Amino acid sequence: MEIEIIRHGEDEVYEAACSGCVESLNALIEKDPHILIKLALTTETETPLHISALLGHLEFTKTLLTHVPKLAKALNSFRRTPLHLASAGGHKEIVQALLFAYPEACLCRDEKGRIPLHYAAMRGEVEVLKELTHANLDSIYLTVDNGFKETVLHLCVKYNQLECLKFLVQLVRDEGEFLNSKAGSDAGMTILQLAWMRGQIQV
Q: What is the model's pTM?
């Protein structure tokens, strides 16, 4: 996951986000109570919340969300929310905190047309998948918004994430049309055909 930080005169907040130091953050807020709001208004790339979500700093993330919950809606230069980054990183408790602040992030697509669920599936983060599908079950049916229109099931096969596939198939086992979807492959393959082609016998 790429990360790009552009400074806006608030280097100390970014440094605190990288280290996850809540004490430093609180000291900066005490010094300037509006520092996070100013950052939220002027930042066009990674916010401190993107950084703490990516690096797995739970308490720092919670502190940021307490002061400026709308940071959960911020998009970085790749159009990813903090939830995209936390989901890819497998940070379950951070995912929970971000979902509480902004549950609609489940459906936000980045510049590659992927939602947070797609990244969790690609990285094999089953516990995060559980949180995301609990927050919005319909997110399972969103395909990657690209030329291939991959389903999350195709992504599990493509990235060889068997446990994620098992979990998702259990959730959608009564949805035969979705399980047999031919979306997600330039050859129009179902997930079964894709698994066979890749020699993934367990799948």
A: 0.86
